[in-house]
Design brief:
The complex is a heterodimer. Chain A is an alpha/beta fold. Chain A folds into two domains: 2-219, Rossmann fold (3-Layer(aba) Sandwich), CATH 3.40.50; 225-290, ACT domain (Alpha-Beta Plaits), CATH 3.30.70.260. Chain A is built from eleven helices and 14 strands. By secondary structure, chain B is of the alpha+beta class. Chain B has two domains: 2-177 and 210-261, no CATH class; 354-494, no CATH class. Classes of the chains: A alpha/beta, B alpha+beta.
């Protein structure tokens, strides 16, 4: 289990760059044997959190433990983690075989046969330099290395970037097979929410260094509802009045929009709970629909002023 | 068991890393082969003449240059091994590997030993063995000393490179800082001694830095004010190696503090960011001060600004320039104040130091030239003097130096005048009257050591000095008398040569 307790990261103390994201008191638990998705806006702190989990950065505050051991500068804890960052520019002078030697030296459980079988499956040569590989091919190589390292936890930062849809599907299958066979856990960050929704058991959303939510995906999806109402009451014609009314009924409203007589409301509640609460408004028609992960992402961040199209108005 | 696992990790990691530095290894190997080869050729060709006899030989110069180049090439090896310290992508990979900082450092240190220290030391051992075989006229201690000095160079450059790379987070800084830092450390003691101590106390001695002063060897010039003969270098070289090993340990402490956060920062530690430009600027100021104070002011400023500006990756603010200027002015002020202290104390007491052991033989000469407005108008000399006689004469001339009795403001004016002329300009220091005493320790074939003192005197002091010299029985001549004597001696020599060559010519004709 990976435990992140009250972790803060303040880059301004250690670098001059003020554009770097910071983390503010993030607490998170990643259980064993799960696939965990990291969601967040650009520069929210997903990669920073992964680097902290890999022991690349020491946290400014708080602690990160892997199976009870602190990860920073601790080889015993790091043996359980393999981190794939979001770049593919390193080791371009190496061949996959050279990299196998490199990682084999560091990870005691590294499996040559698994590496070779994955490389064979993705039809990549072992003796050509990575400089001659495309971005997707480099990604496949690094993922193969990560899987062959046989660590308990895999951290993939934007790992599927650059892969074509067919290869993406194949790699995902290889990864899930590996996770099942080795009872390993995967933490993956991606901007492709469909992918996260398809692959992950749990997810968390981070924005400007602050944790917005973290839960398993079913609970998450069940916790957000899109209501479509037809309300004749003229007193509620104004969106802001309707929002206030709904809030007074105990609903956390993320967004209210009107399309003719139909009012579309996004609330943080289950479908039945939301329908029960709006029934007091005596709507002519009411329908509740679960949000997709992408809609949850957009509405949560818009509610925090991110990605809002207000400036176009 | 844990130690064994750690050792395995270090071994495997260093094996994997070795791919990063193959090109550098080839370069080092070539330089080491050339270095050893040039020494061997020199010893075979000039072995009978002895090491000092072959000193200026071209092969030996090439051997020295390639040896220095092989030592300095460690600067190129470090960035290849420590990529995680300046490249974010490598930092992500290497800092996330299951290795502790100590294990990573040991693995890299092993590669430095394998790819730099070992080939270099093997080349020097080859030089040592060939030297002991072929240099029949040269004492073994001299050959051992040369080998040890060369070995101390490689330890020094690697230690400085490790310190610098542990303190820098950008590739450019990882390369130029060891070069400048190493040069500054090497040059400062030598130039301090020659410029601020000897020259400002108006003393000139035989310059025995005939080898390239790389590393801490220059410090021995301050510690050991005697001559710098090779047999005396064994201890210095061993000390230099030990100091370098200490620096490598310090580099390890600094490396342990590094993580992914500091990647991209030119200077990671504030202390290094302050010490580095100051040290380089001091070196530039002291070097140029030997020749021209104005140049030292200009080039010192340029050096400080260049380092301060180039190490700023963000937009340069007026505040940064102001801090740079304050730093530079502090450096310049420190040198000027130290120089003034040296000026009024006779090189911090150097002028009062006893003569080196070369003068113990008792076959010492002196000559005194008296100048007025830079024209010589009197000459005195003495030969075959004992060390105590020479020292007594030295003390007499030194005591004439007015700066020991002058007021602070008078000394300040004299110092300012001296600085404008250039610290190293010991001769012709004043447009008034001055006395130049040169003492020579004579060897069997050549002068072994020279120590000269220039003092500005008054006409009264001049008369007093002439009287003293005459009283002691030394020959004192006026300029015209001396010139006439020199001409006469020259003509006699010519005649002797003609007489000697005459019969030979006849024989040849016959």
């Amino acid at each position: 289990m990976i435990e992140i307790k009250n972790v803060s990261m303040d880059f301004s103390e250690s670098t001059r760059s003020l554009t770097q994201p910071s983390l503010k008191k993030v607490s998170l638990t990643i259980p064993e044997g799960c696939i965990y998705g990291f969601l967040g806006s650009n520069g929210a702190g997903k990669s920073t959190l992964m680097r902290l989990m890999s022991g690349i950065y020491p946290p400014t505050e708080g602690i990160i433990t892997i199976d009870g051991e602190s990860v920073y500068d601790n080889p015993a804890a790091k043996e359980k983690i393999f981190f794939v960052n979001d770049e593919t520019t390193q080791f371009t002078g190496y061949t996959p075989d050279d990299l196998r030697l490199f990682y084999k030296g560091a990870y005691p459980e590294f499996s040559d046969s698994e590496f070779e079988s994955i490389m064979k499956a993705v039809e990549l040569p072992l003796d050509k330099k990575l400089a001659t590989f495309s971005k997707g091919m480099k990604r496949q190589t690094v993922i193969a290395l990560g899987l062959a390292a046989n660590t308990k936890y895999l951290l993939f930062d934007e790992a599927f970037d650059g892969l074509d849809p067919a290869m993406r599907r194949m790699i995902k299958n290889i990864i899930t097979d590996h996770l099942i066979d080795h009872s390993a856990s995967l933490v993956v960050s991606s901007h492709n929410l469909g992918e996260i929704g398809e692959l992950c058991d749990s997810a968390m959303l981070i924005h400007k260094g602050e944790l917005v939510f973290s839960d398993d995906l079913d609970s998450l999806r069940g916790g957000f509802t899109k209501l479509q109402l037809v309300v004749r009451n003229t007193e509620l014609a104004d969106d802001s009045v309707l929002r206030e009314k709904l809030s007074s009924l105990g609903l956390e409203v993320l967004d209210v929009a009107s399309m003719g007589s139909i009012r579309q409301i996004i609330v943080k509640a289950g479908e039945q709970e939301a329908l029960d609460k709006v029934s007091s408004l005596t709507p002519d028609a009411a329908e509740a629909v679960r949000l997709t992960l992408e809609e949850i992402f957009i509405y949560e961040l818009e509610a925090r002023g991110y990605g809002s199209a207000d400036f176009l108005k | 068991m844990a130690a064994q696992t750690s050792l395995n990790r270090i071994r495997s990691y260093s094996k994997a890393l070795s791919k990063n530095c193959r090109k550098q290894f080839v370069l080092i190997l070539v330089l080491c082969v050339f270095s050893g080869g040039f020494y061997l050729m020199d010893f075979i060709a000039f072995g009978a003449g002895g090491y000092s006899g072959a000193w200026m030989d071209q092969f030996l110069i090439y051997a020295t240059y390639t040896t220095v180049a092989a030592a300095v090439s460690g600067v190129l090896l470090m960035p290849a091994l420590f990529r995680e310290l300046y490249n974010r992508q490598y930092a992500d990979v290497e800092f996330s590997l299951p290795l502790s900082a100590a294990e990573r450092y040991k693995a890299k240190l092993w590669l430095i030993a394998k790819y730099h220290l070992m080939p270099y030391i093997i080349a020097q051992l080859m030089m040592l063995i060939s030297g002991l075989i072929f240099l029949t006229e040269t004492p073994a201690s001299t050959v051992v000393s040369v080998a040890l000095i060369n070995i101390s160079w490689v330890f020094f450059t690697d230690a400085v490179s490790l310190i610098c790379i542990s303190c820098c987070g950008c590739l450019a800084e990882c390369i130029y800082t060891p070069v400048l830092f190493g040069a500054a450390i090497s040059v400062i003691p030598v130039c301090f001694m020659e410029g601020l101590v000897k020259s400002l106390s108006n003393i000139a001695t035989s310059f025995y830095f005939s080898f390239i002063p790389v590393g801490f060897l220059g410090i021995t010039e301050i510690v050991d004010l005697d001559t710098m003969y090779f047999h005396e270098h064994i201890l210095s070289a061993v000390l230099s190696c030990l100091i370098s090993c200490g620096l490598m340990l310090l580099a390890f402490m600094l490396y342990k503090k590094r993580n992914g956060l500091s990647v991209g920062k030119p200077f990671v530690f504030k202390t290094f960011a302050r010490v580095f430009p100051v040290l380089v600027t001091l070196a530039v100021i002291i070097v140029f001060m030997l020749y021209s104070f104005y140049n030292s002011v200009l080039f010192g400023l340029l050096a400080f600004l260049a380092i301060s500006v180039s190490s700023k990756r963000r937009k340069l603010a007026l505040r940064d320039i102001m801090f740079s200027m304050i730093g530079y002015i502090s450096c310049l002020a420190a040198v000027i104040v130290t120089g003034f202290m040296s000026f009024v104390t006779g090189g911090f007491g150097y002028a009062k130091m006893s003569f080196p052991k070369e003068f113990d033989k008792g076959d010492n000469d002196f000559y005194i030239n008296l100048y007025h407005e830079s024209h010589r108008y009197a000459h005195a000399s003495g030969t075959a003097l004992s060390k105590s006689e020479i020292e007594e004469l030295w003390d007499t001339v030194r005591d004439m130096d007015q700066r020991y009795s002058n007021s602070f403001s008078e000394n300040l004016r004299a110092y300012e005048k001296r600085l404008r002329m250039g610290a190293a300009d010991v001769y012709g220091i004043d447009s008034g009257t001055e006395i130049l005493l040169t003492c020579e320790a004579c060897g069997e074939q050549f002068v072994e050591y020279t120590k000269a003192l220039t003092v500005v005197i008054t006409p009264e002091q001049y008369d007093e000095m002439v009287a003293k010299l005459k009283e002691k029985g030394y020959k004192v001549e006026t300029e015209s008398e001396y010139d006439a004597e020199v001409c006469e001696t020259y003509e006699e020599d010519e005649q002797q040569e003609d007489t000697a060559e005459g019969p030979q010519t006849e024989e040849t004709q016959e």
